[in-house]
Inverse folding.
């Protein structure tokens, strides 16, 4: 089976229906629809009643099936019985792989892929291979006004298709209010049985001010007057339902590195008031989406980190493959001179370094002992990210 996971309203159902158009026979099932729930309860193999146009193998799309209380055993039974007769595409706005536990494991029965909010690197459809990109990571790229315009629209409206294509900031504000309410008070509450929904919603509202700094669960718990365990659980749920994602600190070859606290970023960065923090979050999502796509394709085992030491020197991002550092990325809103920290950490790690700025038409290269630091417009460099 193919599992496609990602944030609610990122376009999973739309893509599934486009895929279905390539099949002569297909059936779409959504567990959120009451009539569909009834069909499943009455007959677990309801899809057998599909009205066929020919003898080709049908596509069965199961949307939000992870909300069914026995969904893992159900899919296991469906696969073991009918894998040779149907193609199964399973969609979910919770992390389908997170819910895999115990003896009813679906291991060996599915491949997991992700669909994320729109990013510039997806829009640009870079034709570079990853190997070529990594070998030429400090290359000089020409500025493209089209990609700069897309980047600015993403900055204002987020990468979620509905508000992005509306091109309307007022609509975005209405959309995000409804989106967050639906996730907190419907999806998360119903599946996790959280009692203090209002305090969880308050935590979500506080997160934009926490972006870009190592997170302290203790401090947040004190602010909200709730337990450490509650905040920890709620943050994990935000990750599970793709409201947020986190990156871990990198410590190899870094003396006095901070190793314990994660950084949290939002899938919807347009809610952030600070332009500098919003810019950092946008770059984080571009990198996070890219490395997860490379992992989904089986190219490697990529991970995203940040570097910070006890002297408070910091670089925003480090990309690694199999725990081997590949390159570091710093973000600055407009400063086109390399930061002191990027010099320091590049000299320790001996890897390429990029400083991205939120200003068009910038492409500069600076020497750093035997290394090179490139300072480039974010819209230019990210549009070439494979």
């Amino acid at each position: 089976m193919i599992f496609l996971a990602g944030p609610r309203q990122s376009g999973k159902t739309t893509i599934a229906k486009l895929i279905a158009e390539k099949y002569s026979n297909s059936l779409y099932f959504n567990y959120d629809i009451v009539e569909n729930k009834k069909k499943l309860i009455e007959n677990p193999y309801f899809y057998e009643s599909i009205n066929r146009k020919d003898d080709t193998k049908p596509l069965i799309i199961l949307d939000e099936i992870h909300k069914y209380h026995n969904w893992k055993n159900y899919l296991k039974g469906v696969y073991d019985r009918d894998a040779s007769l149907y193609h199964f595409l399973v969609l979910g706005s919770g992390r389908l792989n997170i819910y895999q536990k115990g003896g009813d494991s679906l291991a060996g029965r599915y491949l997991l892929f992700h669909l994320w909010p729109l990013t510039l690197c997806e829009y640009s459809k870079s034709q570079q291979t990853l190997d070529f990109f990594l070998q030429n990571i400090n290359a000089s790229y020409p500025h493209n006004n089209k990609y700069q315009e897309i980047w600015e629209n993403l900055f204002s409206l987020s990468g979620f298709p509905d508000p992005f294509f509306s091109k309307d900031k007022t609509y975005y504000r209405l959309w995000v209010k409804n989106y967050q309410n639906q996730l907190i008070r419907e999806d998360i509450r119903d599946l996790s049985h959280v009692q203090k929904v209002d305090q969880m919603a308050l935590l979500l509202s506080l997160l934009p001010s926490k972006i870009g700094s190592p997170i302290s669960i203790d401090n947040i718990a004190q602010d909200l007057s709730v337990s450490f365990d509650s905040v920890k659980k709620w943050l994990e749920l935000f990750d599970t339902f793709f409201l947020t994602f986190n990156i871990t600190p990198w410590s190899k070859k870094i003396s006095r590195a901070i190793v314990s606290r994660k950084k949290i970023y939002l899938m919807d960065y347009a809610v952030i008031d600070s332009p500098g923090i919003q810019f950092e979050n946008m770059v984080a999502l571009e990198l996070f989406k890219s490395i997860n796509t490379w992992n989904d394709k089986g190219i490697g085992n990529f991970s995203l980190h940040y570097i910070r030491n006890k002297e408070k020197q910091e670089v925003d991002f480090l990309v690694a493959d199999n725990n081997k550092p590949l390159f570091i990325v710093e973000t600055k809103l407009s400063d086109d001179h390399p930061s002191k920290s990027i010099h320091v950490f590049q000299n320790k790690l001996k890897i390429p370094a990029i400083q991205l700025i939120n200003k068009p038409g910038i492409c500069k290269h600076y020497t750093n002992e035997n290394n090179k630091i490139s300072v480039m417009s974010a819209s230019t460099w990210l549009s070439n990210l494979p």
About this structure: The CA atoms of residues 95 and 240 lie 5 Å apart. The radius of gyration is 22 Å.
